[in-house]
Every structure is written in C-alpha cells, then in structure tokens.
Amino acid sequence: MSEDFIFSKNAEILFRVLHRIRIMRGLLNLIFPFYGKVNNYDPNLYRYFAIGQSHLDTAWNWTWPWTKKKIRKTFGNALKHIDEFDKFMFSAPAPAHYEYFERAYPILFEKLKRYVKNNRWDIVGGMWVEPDGNVPDGESLVRQRLYGQKYYIKKFGKYSLVAWVPDSFGFTWSYPQIFLKSGSPYFHTTKLTWNHEHEFPFALFHWEGPDGSRILAHNFQQGFRALERVGLYANKASLIPNKESSPIYNYAFDFGKNDIRGKEYIRDFGWWYGEGDGGGGPLLAELLIPVNLTESKGWKFVKAALYFKLIEKKYGKRLPVWKDELYLEVHRGCQTTLYRAKKQNRMCETLLPKMEKLSICSSIFLPNASICNFIQFPIETFDDCWKKLLFNQFHDILPGSSIEEVYLDADEDYQYVFNAMGILKDSLSEEISKNVEKPKKAESDCLFFFPNHWAGKIVYFDRVINNHVMYMDDENFKDFKDFNYHIVEKPKGIGFQCISEQEAEENTNNYKDIDLKNEEISVQITSSSLKVTINKETANISSLKLTRDDSDFDFSDRKADGLNVLKIYVDEPNSNDAWNLDPNYREKQLNTIEINNINIISPAMHKTDVELAFKIAINESTATLSYIINDALPYIIVKLDLDYQEYRKLLRVEFDTNIKNDKITTGLAYGVIDRPTKPRTPLERGRWEFPGQKFISLSDGSHGLSIMCENRYGFHVDGTQFGMSLKKAPLYGKPDDFMNIPTDCPDNKLREIGAISKDKRKEIKDLGKHRIVWAIYPHRGNWIQAKVYQKFFNFTDHPIKLKKKIKMPKEFDKFQNLIDCSLDHVRISTIKPIFGKKNGLVIRLFEFIGKDDSGTLFIHPDLIGKDNAVKVYNADLLEGDRFLKTEQLNEELKYDSATHEIRFKITRFEIKTIVIRIINNQK
C-alpha cells in the first residue's frame, strides 16, 4: 500500500468503513505478523504504547497566519478523535499555539481544558515554541521554558513533564539542567535518527549535562516509519548487565572495544504516531492500529510521561549514560544560513536582559526606592517582547530554513522589540532626570548603565537603541559608516557611571601611541600588548606575538596562510540548500580573493589606535576588511563590511596556528564544550562542522588563541587550524514546494507570492550588505586563565548611554555598584521581577568555568528599601513556583543586613536562580 494512498482522503473513508463493519481488527491481526517479518522482527516480542501527536511547524513553508488555520485543524481533529474513540489520547506542545487557540476559539479551548483534566489531552513540551537547539543563548532557552511552563500552570493547573523537541537541528549540552530545573525529567526527540553518516547508538538513555544533571531521553522514529524499525530495539534499546556499572558514553567512546551492553533489551516500545510538519494528524490509518489492537495484541494508549515513568521504574538503573551534546549529522548549514535573522536574534537576546537590569536598577533614583517599587518596569511590554523573540527562535525560523515571507514578519517583530526598548530607555532617562540634580550649565556629561559586574576596560560602540537608533538591519549601515567606539574603565559592580564626552575621549586616548612600520610587503604594528604583522598582499596576519612574552611565541604558522584568512568555497549540498553544507566544500576552494587597495588610518578614531582597511574583491563580491588595534585592548577588532553577491558559496575566516592540543573549546548556551582537534572515532568524525557561541579557543597550556564573535555559530577544526563560517547564500527553504498555495490561504501576501514564477523565487538568497565584527585575542594560558568569557561580554554587551547633560548627586558613588558578585567566574545574567509580579526580585547566576565555589551577592540596601524584611532562597528556573515539586531547590539563603550580602554556594556550570521576596510588604 503506497504512502500517498495512506495519506489520502479515500484512505480515510476506506479505513473508517472497515472499522465500522468490524473488519479492521481482523485485517490487522493478519497483516501485522507479516509486516513484522518483512521488517525483520517478531511483533509478539513487544508491548506497544501508543502516544498520539501531530508535529506542527510554527512557521516554515508558510507564515504564522496560515499556521493559525493549521492549529484549528489539528486541535479540532484531535478533539473529534477523543470524542469518537474512548481510549485515544493526544499530545501537543508549543504554548504559543494554545494561546492563539484560546483567544480565537474560547469554547473549544474550554473543551480542551476538560480533556486535559480528564487525562485525554496531554500538554507536553513546556517551551513557548519548539526552538532551535544551537543558536539561542542560555537565557533565551530558560525563558522558553519559563513562558511555556507558566502558561501551562496558569491555564491547566499542571506543567509538562516531557521536554518535547522532535524536530530541532541538534541539542545543546546545557539542555539537561535547563529541562530538569523547569519541571521536565524526560526528553523526547526523533531527530537524531536523521543522522547521515553514523547512526546515534541509543533509543533510550540517560542524558547527563556538564553540571551533572540527568534526564531520561528517548530518540526514535515516529509514525509508520517507526513500525518498520522496531527490530532495531534489540540494539538501540539494549541494557547494561546487572553486575556491571554503566560506562559513560560520549562521541569519543570506542563502541567496538568498550561497549558492555548485553543481549537483553527493552521490549516496551513507545510508538509516537501522528502526521507531522503541517499538523492535521494523527491520520485515521495510524489511529486505527492501536484502536483495533488494544485487546488482541496488548496495545495501550498512554501519555508520554507514563511511558517514561514505566521505563524509568523497570530499566532506569540499566540504561546507558550519554555525557555529551546531542549532535545532528545533517543540517549543519543552519548554524550559518541567513545572517540577518541570527544577528537580530542575538541583538534582542542581549538587549532584553540588559533593559530588565536597567529598569530594576533605575529604581535607586526614586525617593522611596525598593524592589517593591520598580521604576517604569512595564511587565506587559517585556512579556510581549520576549514572546516575539522566543517565537522567532522556532527551529525553522532562526536556522534560516523558512521561506522569505516568514522573515519579513520576523523583521517586524524585531523592530517592535527595538522600538519598545527605545521608548523605555527614553522614559527611564526622563524619570532619572526628574530625581537628580539639574545641571547649572549646559554640560555634556553622559549617564551610562553597565550591565555586567566585572571591572575593567569596556569597549563602547556608538549604538543607541532604535528609535532612537539601534541598528536593526544592514540597510542602516548604508556605506558602512558609524563605527565609532570609546573605551571606558568601569569599577566593579552593575550600576551607573557618569562620564563626560571629554572624559570618555581622554579615557580612550590615555594610552601610549602605537608603533607602526609600513614596509613594502607588510605592516608591523606594536602596542603595549601585541606585535602584529599584516601581509599587504593577502590581508592576512602573518605574525602575531605578545609584547610582554619572554618566549617570543608566534601564534601564526608561517608555513601556512597565517591568521584571519578569508576563504570562499563552493557550497552545493545534495539537497536542502538552506539546511545543509556541502560535505566536500573544503575540497572546492575558489582562489578569487584579491586585494584592490589598502588604507592605513593612523590614528584611526583615537591617538592610540591604528586601522588597516583592505578593499577586497571576493569572487563577485566586494568587501572592506579592517583591523583595529588599540593600545588599551589585548585583542584585535576585525570588521568586515561585506556586499555579498555569491550564489551557493560559503565564506569563512580561518586561522593557521602554531598551537597544538587534542581539544578545542567553544562556548554554548549557558555552558562550554571541548571537542577533539583530530577526531579518532566515527562519531567524532561526524562533527566536521560544529555549533558554538560567543568564542572558540585553542590553547596548549602556555599560549592560546581565542576568537570572540557576537553572532556567528558554525565552526571547524583540523589539528592546529580552525575557522568560523561567516556567510552562505542558499535558496530559501523549499520554494518549489511553496508554489501550491491553497486558494483559501488566509494570508494575502502568500496568495500573491504564489503567483510568482519559480525562477523569480530562486533569486531570493542571503545576499546584500552585511557587517560582521569579531575579535582576535592571543593570550597566555587557556581560555579560563585569559578570562575570555568575561572579555566576550565586555566586548559585545555594551553599556547603555542614557542621558546627556546630567549632573549627579554628591553621593553618586552609591549608584556605581548596585548589584555585585564576589566571584569572577560567575556571571549575573538576569535581574528581573518574579514572573508576573512586582513584590520580589530574581537574580540568575551562571558558573562558566566548571568550578564548585561559594561566594556572596551584594544588593545595595536602597534597592531593598528601608525597613523592608526579605526572604531569600534558591529557586528553580520557574522562579520558585510552589507548584513545581522541587523543594530541594527552595533552600532558604541568608541575607546579611549589615553587609547587604547573600551568601551562596554554586557548583560547576550551575544555572542558579536566587529569589528575593519582601515579606512585610506584599503590595
């Protein structure tokens, strides 16, 4: 029976007739043993647990207005199935979908709520949408869980036990901690069955994060495809022998030599079934299998959590433990595709937590400041902005694999966030002005807010929030002007600093002049920190040394191309351009990068810096590659102003070094990960392009080279050479599939675009003007000793310039350190009100070097408020919601009213949420 027929309307009519005349059960009893034999397994060896669902992409080959229609169809079909079949149960994730359904169909939503209460409808997932698992930062993933689980608790009185991400393109290693601390000890996906080169070895396993958190994970096909592969359970669900302790499995594990799994395997088979991608399922052909086999073959309808609990109880101590990321051996291009989407996402990820911090800390200027009196903290505005950001992190939108119309809508959402935060910033500036001394003269002092607690040199770019103007897209660059920056020396602590424009200029210039030698084939630049030689013929760094290094170690491999080498490759994947990379792209390099002109600007913007600007032709594209070296900074700022006109080409920047090590480190969402520089096992070799965030660092113990970049996520390493993918220009999504647009499509834009020819749609690519900025940071020691993590945030998380012409009170020092942490290896990532409330404060910390420690958190007494008593405790990621049964996380902490400090303990890579409540003022 063909797949096309099974999915047809005629099949639904036929199956319904066969079921009603009671023939279906007999047919299945006859067919199923034969079906198993054809697929090399005995169906009688298994118990089957049927879990109904219907995967619905929030946006992909359609936009959100069309998805709304799909939600109505999918939820409506499920409600009808529940009415018709006594034991049928349905599972649906994505609270964003429920929220729409609630608003659009309130009567049906009340019916849905009753079925949730009666255990016929299962709320799963617990993330606002099913997001990409590689590009969103850690706080974004926490907010996905916070907004998702809180919606479930509010509407249904329960939360999801199962983290449900079936279709994401890889899974960050920090997920186990994030899921566990937000109520989900179980995790379900099907995606790792998509691996191209090597099969992922497990169907059921414990997944352990870098902090030690463990969750029970399930990875297998769904639908009819799963029934064809039940025989694989003898291998993928095999058990650890009782007498043995489980080894720790990861990508470096040698399965041929060290695997101790025995011949016993799990025979309780979880069958996730239901038409996917476009929703609408389960199909009747799928549903009638368990309906008719519940008695004769022992099939059971269950909720996903019940299946996980059964597996945990029967087999939990004998399951393998996987301690590594979950890497998808396909769709590697999604880490690079569509620069503008990733850039705007990263800007919002930085902006929203920073504005939350500013809004809280601004209350210090009120006459009766306290954490019960947040100045201008618009909870609804922040909620709207966060939901728009989280929505656009969906696993086809953010990866760049949706159609162009999806990104036109996303641009509007990002613009909304920038505008809302710009208006809030202006409002806060005005409110602060009302409560401080007025200037007697037209002074030019500027009030800055610093969002990170580390002291040191901060690079401040002249960006202001859009309105107002924080650059939203590359069109604002025009001819790529306006890259002015200042270097500000800030004291320790999160808080405010008043700096005149003259003082800012003096701070930036208060270093010695840089020594520059312009020779025939190279330019040599010496600062207090660096000795840099740049080849004028190639624009590469041919030599890079530390000024104060007795060993005279050269980071660049002079036998190779050097450092910061732009390379362009043919990128022609076999299928799905937007998702994939050509696996052989490194064999298809184009030698078409030419230097047209070099401009040495000394001084560049300040006396103490030098800028080298190379005009470059890259195949059909043009660019300006600039190196900015400032005496105050230990790293080189690299700026690429690019007019990209390449079709199916991959642009990368690569570094040939003299650094030898067997591992390289990249940042992750609330974490870091080491990967091999020379893979030894098949699974390691499958990770030839890998995801990362914030930085990539290679060190040999005595020296290291780190690359810090705000919004590039795809990396490669080969021994001493590593690189970063900058741009690729694929087709958008699947334009051919998108031509067949129904006449009843609710989106006018989509109906119009459906009339455009296929050739015209193929012109839509990730082309045009872009500015990409990164920093090259050579250092002694490894990334931890060089404080790369802190320097990344000092480089990218810029202070907010609030107000000009302002004169601060005499006691201004108190505004400079409002919230502080005694530990340098801990970041204060979030300061915000308790979710939906104003009677308390949430402070989220993250330990980022893998060290257990204890420290103190300082809260300025004026933020607490006079005569206020407080209660402080550790909380889960749902911010202490008592509905969540994690009492061990609700340990009370001590607040020292004399020193205004909270003492806490933190473990390796822990995401710690501290809640401060006012207990004598509950307004």
Summarize the structure.
This protein has 923 residues and is α+β, with helices and mostly antiparallel strands. It has a 9-stranded antiparallel β-sheet, covered by helices on one side. Strands 4-5-7-6-11-8 form a 6-stranded mixed β-sheet.
Q: Structural class, please?
A: alpha+beta
Q: What is the first-to-last residue Cα distance?
A: 66 Å
Q: Looking at the structure, what is the overall shape?
A: globular
Number of strands: 44
Question: Helix segment count?
Answer: 22
Over all CA atoms, what is the radius of gyration? Answer: 29 Å
Layout of helices and strands:
Layout: H1 3-6, H2 9-20, H3 24-38, E1 47-53, H4 64-84, E2 90-92, H5 95-104, H6 106-117, E3 121-123, H7 138-156, E4 162-164, H8 175-180, E5 186-189, E6 204-208, E7 214-219, H9 223-228, H10 233-236, E8 248-249, H11 255-258, E9 268-273, H12 284-293, E10 300-301, H13 304-315, E11 321-322, H14 339-361, H15 379-391, H16 404-434, E12 445-450, E13 456-461, E14 485-490, E15 495-500, H17 501-509, E16 515-518, E17 522-526, E18 530-535, E19 541-546, E20 565-570, E21 589-590, E22 593-601, E23 609-618, E24 621-630, E25 636-644, E26 649-656, E27 663-668, E28 671-676, H18 682-685, E29 690-691, E30 693-699, E31 703-709, E32 714-718, E33 721-728, H19 748-753, H20 758-761, E34 768-780, H21 788-796, E35 800-804, E36 819-821, E37 826-833, E38 840-847, E39 853-859, H22 861-864, E40 870-875, E41 892-893, E42 895-896, E43 901-906, E44 911-918
